[in-house]
Amino acid sequence: MNQTSRIPCLLLAAGRGERMRPLTDELPKPLLTIKNKSLLAWHLEAFSPAGIKQVVINHAWLGKKIEDALGDGSQFDLNIAYSPEATALETAGGIRKALPLLRPSDYFLVINGDVFSPYLPIEQLLDQVSSLRSMPNKPLAHLLMVPNPVQHPEGDFYLKGSQVAFEPFNGAEKLTFSGIGLYHLDLFKDLELDVPSKLAPLLREAMAENRVSGEKYTGPWHDVGTPQRLQELNAVDE
């Protein structure tokens, strides 16, 4: 197995899932099911075949239920560790807290636990790591971007080629960040431990230094943000 295959992965599962209530009153959002399989399980089943073995899952709301459901990861041929948060630390704060468990040498993969992307090209994403490492001005993040969904028509960032920017630039397409990306540990080096921190300001700062790359993904991807969207995904025939 090559070095890029051994990078660790963090699944973000600490959100309260307010928009999914009442479904999330008794169950953490990432344990909601599509086709009788939890959102987290969809991700986990794809990791081992892609060469990922070390996984960390952060949690806050009803986190014990996540640990009880997934255990040590052996059912997925993975090693799962957990990064509990007394109160949710936002995305960047959660990543910062999980770094000692992830122990990345440089890059690591992060995936939102509440996105559904059943054919996610994880191996293709991991293949980017060697090229990121070879760049003289190493990117601090490599983001998977998707076409803007109905519920988020304005998008997030601009992409042209492999360059991602916060401001529009010549010929760039505005797309939505999928919640799936590769990050360099240096992106989080100035964050204090156990302090809530958002990811977007860190990304914008890195974009200003032209240190964020990305790629467009047009395969199936869904932000499972409401009970209606969950119901629609369960109603779709395979």
From TrEMBL:
Molecular functions per Gene Ontology: nucleotidyltransferase activity
Nucleotidyl transferase domain location: 10-131
A matching Pfam family: NTP_transferase
Record keywords: Nucleotidyltransferase, Transferase
Name of the protein in its database record: Mannose-1-phosphate guanylyltransferase
Annotated source species: Polynucleobacter arcticus
Lineage: Bacteria, Pseudomonadati, Pseudomonadota, Betaproteobacteria, Burkholderiales
